[in-house]
Amino acid sequence: MKIAILGGTGPEGTGLGLRWAATGHEVIIGSRLTEKGERVAAELKSEYPDGNITGTDNLTAAQEADLVVLTVPYEAQKPTLAHVKDALSGKLLITVVAPTRKPKARVWRLPSGLSAAEEAQQLVGDDTSVVAAMQNIGAHNLRDLDYQLECDVLVCGDNQYDKELAIKLCADAGFRGINAGALQNASVVEGLTSILIGINIRNKVKDAGIRITGI
């Protein structure tokens, strides 16, 4: 599968991209600047020479991909999606966005009353399916392909097939994905990110995560 990662030059985007490339996916690292996307893709390619990894600007990445993953900060979500909206038509958008602001260890309730994922769905329109996933993963060890990831991923969306595809991509990246219900539930999942940041700070660790028991 050809996967575009918008805002993919950060720790989460590069880590996921490297892991997906290692399982045979074609990865396109998107950035606001073509040169930055190309540079980061070259860095990842040097770490995993067998991977099919390229870099470009966000719009071109979205146009070329079968599936798009959004890893930008919340503040960049609206302008990024407005820029690439037409290229997302008919595609699945997996959003990793979790709204945080100072202090990051407190849940940020958005003025809209919605989750960032629901806002993303409104921004892209009904021609694009939005699934929320991987908001709660730590990026610290993602680029270490030998590192065994321990946390689960809660996957929220309104289309069952698209959630199953997102769960498969979670598995390819080394996580267990779990169907967490409708896209509306993403507000709870996004809020867990701030809680986990606080746990990391208080316990002087970097990879606190969640694990669902009993299944």
Strand content: 15-25%
Helix coverage percent: 40-55%
Give a short account of the largest sheet. Answer: 8 strands, mixed
- Put simply, the count of helices is 7
CATH class category? Alpha Beta
Distance between the termini: 29 Å
What is the SS-derived class?
A: alpha/beta
CATH topology: Rossmann fold
What does this protein structure show overall?
The chain is an alpha/beta fold and 215 residues long. The chain has a single domain (2-203), classed as NAD(P)-binding Rossmann-like Domain (Rossmann fold), CATH 3.40.50. The chain has helices at 11-22, 34-47, 58-64, 74-88, 116-124, 160-173, 186-203, and strands at 2-6, 26-31, 52-57, 67-70, 92-95, 129-132, 152-157, 176-179. It has an eight-stranded mixed beta sheet with strand order 3-2-1-4-5-6-7-8, with helices on both faces. Strand 7, helix 6 (160-173) and strand 8 form a beta-alpha-beta unit. The longest helix has 18 residues, at 186-203. The model has no long low-confidence stretch (mean pLDDT 96).
Tag the structure with descriptive keywords.
alpha/beta, globular, 41% helix, 215 residues, Rossmann fold
Summarize the structure.
The chain is built from 7 helices and 8 strands. It has helices at 11-22, 34-47, 58-64, 74-88, 116-124, 160-173, 186-203, and strands at 2-6, 26-31, 52-57, 67-70, 92-95, 129-132, 152-157, 176-179.
